Amino acid sequence: MIDNQIIEEIKSRNDIVDVISSYVGLKRAGSNMQGLCPFHSEKTPSFTVFTATQGYYCFGCGAGGDVINFVRQIENLEYIPALEFLAKRAGITLPDNMRKTEGGFDRNRFLNMNRDAARFFRECLFDENIGREAMAYLRRRELSVATIKRFGIGYSPDGFSALTKHMTNLGYTEEELIAGFLCGRSRKTGTLFDYFRNRVMFPIIDVSGNVIAFGGRVMDDSQPKYLNSSDTPVFKKSRNLFALNFARTSCADELLLCEGYMDVIALHAAGFSNSVATLGTAITPEQARIMSRYTKKVLISYDSDAAGQKAANRAIGILGEVGLDVRVLKIKDAKDPDEFIKKFGAEKFSELLSGSQGKFKYNMDSVLARHDISVPDEKIKACAELTAMIADIYSSAEREVYIGAVSSKLDIPKESIRSDIDRILKKKKREFKKQESQKIVRQSAGFGDRVNPDYAKNVAAAKAEESVLGMLVLYPEHRKAVADGKVNLSESDFFTEFGRRVFKVVFEIERSGAYDSGLLGEYFNPEEQGRIMRMQLARSQLSDNGSDVFAESVLSLKRETSAAVADASVDNILDIINDKRKNT
After folding, report:
1. Which residues, listed in sequence order, are joined to residue 200 by a DSSP beta bridge?
2. CB burial class (10 A; 0-12, 13-18, 19+) of residue 579?
3. How many C-beta neighbours within 10 Å does residue 392 have?
4. Residue 222: phi, psi to the nearest 5?
5. Domain ranges of the chain
6. How many CB atoms are closer than 10 A to CB 239?
7. pTM of the model
8. Rounded to 5 degrees, what are φ and ψ at 361?
9. Considering Cα of 430, then 431, then 434, then 439, what sign does the dihedral take?
């Protein structure tokens, strides 16, 4: 377990308001601070920073914890990298024995392994015998040597285990190579084989300059065209973007989002250094939040085919959810940015950027392209789609602008369109109220609880244990009473697996000599820490949390857990009897 003195120093030198203010606009709300939650889309602030306790909690989505947990969530980092991030911010040097990944691997060693693999791929590309075909392919794609070197492009040989042999000679273990997704193990023979073979290699580099993963592309029409690293101890595909290490310094005005590595590289080579791409998957909410930290406007430049347009529509929604201004490029006479630049040049592409469409104009054009509005029935269908789109827009001023645009396109009076939209909005309001009521009932009953799936099995027992855990996390005197045996409480008294785990970890930290809630991050993910924060808040808002209240809460927990276990035993007996009756 990490030395709590290190945790205390990191937290004391990273005031939570200062850290969160660099990501979220905060305003004073009594003794606390409030702002719009950076972890879900909202119009009114439900995200609160508690200055006295140096914690945060969103009453909308349940995100919560301390400054370490906030950095984990906002920067999409694991626990140790989050500590390193904050330590670096405060000028603190961490001991080497802390640099471990979740899988127990040494993080720095893992990053060095990826760097050495990237060097091997680069050397193979520039070897006249080994990399001749790959270099010819890159030249056909009109990439200069300078661009190839800038992006660290390499080549994985066609042999069965060229990389594996090279890396084991450098001292890396088979377990490290497999965990790093550089090689696999044959099920038939048990021998190792290179995961990437006969492919042009693109290293994925994070904003700190570390090689964290790879993407490999074939040089012909074989499938799969791209092969990408799966998640590893130092890489999460959904939390990174290709070329963000370059783009982050030039994307304050706008960021250009592409589909593939080659598009991004071609754009950077042509002077558009604000370009990034997702990593072989559709865009994720985590990636959208990352982009929102660096820019306020995103231009989507996806392929012009049906799949590209479908992906663009999905990206529009996800990027809009985090408050980004989204625009879409309509690329004509070329299937992607790379081909367009080769055909017409960088200047023409720059003109294309200036003529990008806003998301409503893009969607309106898509609707009108699907319907022949000279036919009455088709015009009605188009109008229905467009009014539904406008009704989804929060700003009434924006709605008025788009009502005018639709009225002009369809030759329908504004009043008629506005009336249809008002009817949709009233229906949405009724449905929202109904859904919120159902959501409250489901949450109270614990249904759909991903953090604590046992909650719904017995709500009374789960609520009782949350009350006890909230007081244990908050008050050292209650932890001492349990540790000294003055209050009889053990793991077996808790009903849910999550509750037992929280109790166990709290007292592991307590026995270490100096309790610090920041140490919980070593054992719990950000969502679980949000639940623990909710337990604390629920208790801290009550006026009496003294020893008598704690003792009574423990007795209540034991009664509810015993009753829940008894009920479960009766249910099991009845199930056995019913099964026997069916079989006789």
Report:
1. 155, 217
2. exposed
3. 12
4. -70, 160
5. 4-98, 107-235, 244-357, 371-439, 455-583
6. 17
7. 0.71
8. -60, -40
9. negative
H or E segment at 217? strand 211-217
Task: Provide the phi-psi class of 391: left if phi over 0, else alpha when psi is between -120 and 50, else beta.
Answer: alpha
Three-state SS at 262: helix
Rounded Cα–Cα distance for residues 394 and 428 (Å):
12
Residue 203 belongs to what H/E stretch? strand 199-205
Residue 183 β-bridge partners? 194
- What CATH number labels 455-583? 1.10.860
Nearest to 285 by CA among 63, 443, 476: 63
Task: Locate all alpha helices (DSSP H) within 446-546, ordered by sequence.
Answer: 459-474, 476-483, 497-511, 526-540
Type of residue numbered 451: V
Residue 435 and residue 440: Cα distance in Å, rounded?
A: 9
Rg of the chain over CA atoms, in angstroms?
28
Range 4-98 classified under CATH 3.90.1150.10: no
Tell me which CATH code domain 244-357 carries.
3.40.1360.10
Token pair 């959904």 is at which residue?
A: 238
- Burial readout 275-312 (b: 16 or more C-beta within 10 A, e: otherwise): bbbbbbeebbebbbbbbbebbebbbbbbbbeeebbebb
**Which CATH class name applies to 107-235?**
alpha beta
Q: How many Å is the maximal CA-CA distance in the chain?
A: 83
End-to-end CA distance of the chain: 56
Phi-psi region of 12 (alpha: psi -120 to 50; beta: other; left: phi over 0): alpha
Rounded CA gap, 259 and 309, in Å?
11
Q: Note down pLDDT in tens along the chain; length 584 residues.
A: 567 778 888 999 999 999 999 888 899 999 899 999 988 877 789 999 999 889 999 998 899 999 999 999 888 788 888 888 899 899 988 776 665 555 667 888 999 999 999 999 999 999 999 999 999 999 999 999 999 999 999 999 998 899 999 999 999 999 999 999 999 998 888 899 999 999 999 999 998 899 999 999 999 888 888 999 999 988 988 889 999 999 998 998 899 999 889 999 999 999 999 999 998 788 988 898 889 888 989 999 987 777 878 888 889 888 988 878 899 888 888 888 899 999 999 999 998 888 887 888 888 888 898 899 999 999 999 999 999 989 988 778 889 999 999 999 999 999 999 999 999 999 988 887 777 565 555 555 555 688 898 988 888 889 999 999 999 999 999 999 999 999 999 999 999 999 999 999 999 888 877 777 778 888 898 899 999 999 999 998 888 899 999 999 999 999 988 887 665 544 454 454 455 555 55
Quote the CA–CA distance of 104 and 404 in Å, as a whole number.
Answer: 60
Of the candidates 330, 274, 273, the one whose C-alpha atom is nearest the C-alpha of residue 305 is: 330
Closest to 147 (Cα-Cα) out of 232, 233, 51, 270: 270
Element (H, E) at 211: strand 211-217
